[in-house]
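pasting for ref
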Amino acid sequence: MPVNTVVTGVGGQGVVSATDIISIVALTAGYDVKKSDVHGMAQRGGAVTSFVRYGEKVYSPIIEQGTADFLIALEEMEALRGINFLKENGTVILSDFHTPPPDVALGFKRYPGHIQEVLRKMKPAVKCYRPGVVSMLEEHPGYSINVFLLGIYARFQSYEKMVWLEAIRQRFKRPDKAIESFLYGYEKQVKEIV
């Protein structure tokens, strides 16, 4: 069965870069890979979702609702948009970083609270990890949210750390900060939220 991963966030967070790196890693391992990106008004902070599927043979890049193994939410509220793609016992890597969408920034709506509790009600068996993106950015200005969360995601995969680092080098012209961000996530101890 293919491994299905959904990455969601807002424009400028590196949603597409994250799935590019996952794709490079899976291709290096010899898997068939399919990827699809859905852009909202990405340049204005709109929602961006990217699907990546890999396995022995993958026929479609689209992930059907209820079939994703992983959801990586670079922006907390975007997890609510992506949760229906996740399997009942799937894994969420949930950022605590907030980038209010335009309707919230303009005061038409409120940013929802207690998102992890809402996710748990929607998918009670989900495994949810919340690695503390805001504290990471305070401690390490210039680190990247997308690659930091990929470092955590990588620990759920069977590929060697060096394969991930090489994929990052292939994806970025100046990979130093991205590699530091990835390694910080890869080495961070993150417990499942119960």
